[in-house]
């Protein structure tokens, strides 16, 4: 069972294959891209323990030799020291411009390896094999690559499109349920930003999808990737419309920064809470119906996902500190925060003129627990 979404970016066009059994079929998928029968895999310990042997076996069965670099898991790997490690390893391995590097892991590995591929010899090709739901529906598609800085998340990077994306749905079964649901936060985001019918479909099918229905998972990933591909083709370098994909992210990134980019709040959890806040802000500004934020939170609750600031364990910084963290957002233009707000479920837009007292009032209330 597999579906293909084509990302029509001219001479940088590529396919995203979504389905089951793709790791087993990886040799025949990758072989047409190769100028010599060898690939370099960069992965992390957790994914390597679960799936690296299967990937290597599959490539070797197709006559493709492999070399692998296994990094530590976790967000801190998306950093300058590990970027240096990857680039120096690829250089030591004498990877050439016409070779192909494989990013085998979740969003951290995809972003890091994509960035290493972007700067190695001024750009080598790479294939994304995303192993988390979040990476399958978002970060592996569209060519955003990069690392974090002490100043904030994803502040150093480049646009570098992969040559192929293989999203094997089978690997989702090995995800920790919390990681799966964090990725689902990004799936919900697509419905909320641009497709009300998809959000209604998720309301209907989300619980079965989360308990492992593969056909529903393929469909959810396909629809998410299709929406992302359509937006990326129209606005590859985020001059306008692509910013819609950041629905929930201005709040989410600030919350991730406030909680140390770690286990207290996963990226997709921050996005889910951020989407709930973006709809609450939209309703407060009279942009969308009062029922919309409740419907968003009801779906997150049904999926047993975090949706309120009080769902985050431990103390959060005060209002001013939180607003200060938002000001590091990449969407800040001329010092002005830009929010993705909504006129309705499925109808998001970029807003530059959010009154700061409305924002402060909303966040103060959210910090108090909506009393
Ligand atoms: N994750 C947002 C984007 O790729 O534009």
Task: Walk me through the structure.
The mean pLDDT is 95. The longest helix has 21 residues, at 214-234. With 371 residues, this protein is an alpha/beta fold. The chain has 2 domains: 2-174, Rossmann fold; 177-367, Dehydroquinate synthase-like - alpha domain (Dehydroquinate synthase-like, alpha domain, Up-down Bundle), CATH 1.20.1090.10. It is built from 13 helices and 11 strands. It has a 7-stranded mixed beta sheet with strand order 1-2-9-6-5-3-4, with helices on both faces. Strands 7-8 form a two-stranded antiparallel ribbon. The protein has a two-stranded antiparallel sheet with strand order 10-11. The protein is globular. Strand 10 and strand 11 (347-351) form a beta hairpin. Glycine (GLY) binds at residues 138, 142, 144, 242, 245-246.
Task: Give the key terms.
binds glycine, Rossmann fold, 7-stranded mixed β-sheet, two-stranded antiparallel sheet, 371 residues, alpha/beta, 18% strand, 46% helix, Dehydroquinate synthase-like, alpha domain, single chain, 2 domains
**CATH topology heading of the largest domain:** Dehydroquinate synthase-like, alpha domain
Report the CATH superfamily of the largest domain.
Dehydroquinate synthase-like - alpha domain
Note the beta-strand portion.
15-25%
Number of strands: 11
Any idea of the CATH class of the largest domain?
Mainly Alpha
State the oligomer. Answer: single chain
Shape: globular
